[in-house]
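Quick note —
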Amino acid sequence: MRPRERFLSVLHRESIDRMPAVCPLQTATIDQMRLSGAYWPEANFGGEKMAKLSLAASEFAGFESARVPFDVAVDEEALGAEIGRSDRETAPFIMKPIIVEKEDLDALVVPDPGAAGRVPVLLDAISRIKAEHPELPMICAHHAPFTLAAQLRGEEQAMVDIATDPEFLEAILCKCTEWGSALAKAAVDAGADAIMMIDAEANDLILGPEEFARFARPGETAMVKAIHALDCPAMVHICADVSLTADQVADSGVDGFSIGQGSSVKDIRARTRGRCIMIGNVSPATTLYSGTPDEVREETLRCIRDGFDLVAPGCGLSPKTPLVNLQTMTATIKTFRKT
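Predicted structure written out below.
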């Protein structure tokens, strides 16, 4: 099977010859920058270099996928937020919330993704990657509505809104969902094979089941519906523990659920009951960044045996992750055979 076919077959829960070695989260590292000649910050602001660095994860680390962007500020910048420019080890980041007063939401117009912020750069990178390597699955990531709303409003204020002004937060969520649907369509039109929604704020430490049902699940569900209407699979990633709300994530209709190293795949699978594939959760910090190749191999095998459908990092990679550790993980995935 070719990499794209293998990856999509997993998401559709169809038979495969072996597990694909993919990374649906941040892939760029200093080693890959050095080998490809495409460095941050330039690779965050230009389509040609973004594509080149994305493909470095396949060429040098052994991943059977391409994934863009490398930061989680593309949505916010497109909607008008000021971002801090990155350096070689730091991705762009939002400087401050932009919805401070209710009038700010009234003034927020959802733009055309093709002319908003760095989205044209993102779309250019996707098109370049698909033209050069059509056999690789092309994954585009952006924020899920709840996490985007929390960024635009400010995380602490969004939590206050849940208790004191939930209707206002829901109004923000509506615009975030409208934006996410438009961006997903633009990405698929450019060549994306799958959409990864990052919903890092929608974890059990922040939202209980009732809050998740009101503020996170509707946006995820609407986004999945919009992505599926494009004949494209949808994934979601939530970093911290999601044991209490995993069933609701599955209720959204999402095809793949990526969990961090703080969650147990056995617990999450029991709650999702086979309604989506499980993705994760080799630790990007204690294992991939700080561990030895032998430790990487052992944790990768543990994730396979624990029942992940796709074994991948449990969060985005640190730029200083050693290349040999990534190569060890991908080689272990590709050569594993059930006995």
